[in-house]
């Protein structure tokens, strides 16, 4: 999977070096889902351009390209640094302090760990122990 991700990142950079592959997921045996971001935002036209750039993958895979949305995946140390102060949900590969899911505010992040303020305590999670993480949208205020 790492080799495929590297290939996709290289092909996308050829199209536009400002497009970032946020996450690559397999959604079935031959299905791929890509979440992309761009400093100017992600629209349908950009998703279509990325799909065309990766057309060689369509021989073996179905391909879904989309924006990260409000529940943006956080997959790299720089993502956690960029969104410091925002609410996040982090799921770990194995239990850490007796649990595998943590929802709180990103307090600190560096190349090795992310610290999440859970309200009553903080937890420091090494990046290699993170299975999945994403932003948690702010609750909508009822009218």
Question: How are the SSEs placed, and which strands pair?
Answer:
Blueprint: H1 2-15, E1 20-28, E2 31-37, H2 44-53, E3 62-66, H3 77-82, E4 87-96, E5 99-109, E6 113-117, E7 122-126, E8 130-135
Parallel strand pairs: 2-3
Antiparallel strand pairs: 1-2, 4-5, 4-8, 5-6, 6-7
What does this structure look like?
There is one protein chain. By secondary structure, the chain is an alpha+beta fold. Helix content is 21%, strand content 41%. It contains 3 helices and 8 strands, in the order αββαβαβββββ. It has helices at residues 2-15, 44-53, 77-82, and strands at residues 20-28, 31-37, 62-66, 87-96, 99-109, 113-117, 122-126, 130-135. The protein has a 5-stranded antiparallel β-sheet. It has a 3-stranded mixed β-sheet with strand order 1-2-3. A hairpin with a 3-residue loop joins β5 (99-109) and β6. The longest helix has 14 residues, at 2-15. The protein is elongated. The N and C termini lie far apart (45 Å).
């Amino acid at each position: 999977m790492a080799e495929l991700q590297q290939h996709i990142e290289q092909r996308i950079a050829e199209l536009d070096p400002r497009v970032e592959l946020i996450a690559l997921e397999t959604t079935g045996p031959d299905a791929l889902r890509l979440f992309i971001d761009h400093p100017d935002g992600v629209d349908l036209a950009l998703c279509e351009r990325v799909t065309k750039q990766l057309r060689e993958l369509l021989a073996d895979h179905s391909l879904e390209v989309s924006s990260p949305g409000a529940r943006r995946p956080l997959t790299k140390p720089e993502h956690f640094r960029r969104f410091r102060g925002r609410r996040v949900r982090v799921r770990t590969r194995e239990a850490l302090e007796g649990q595998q899911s943590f929802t709180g505010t990103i307090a600190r992040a560096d190349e090795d760990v992310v610290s999440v303020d859970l309200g009553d305590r903080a937890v420091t999670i090494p990046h290699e122990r993170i299975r999945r993480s994403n932003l948690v949208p702010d609750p909508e205020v009822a009218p």
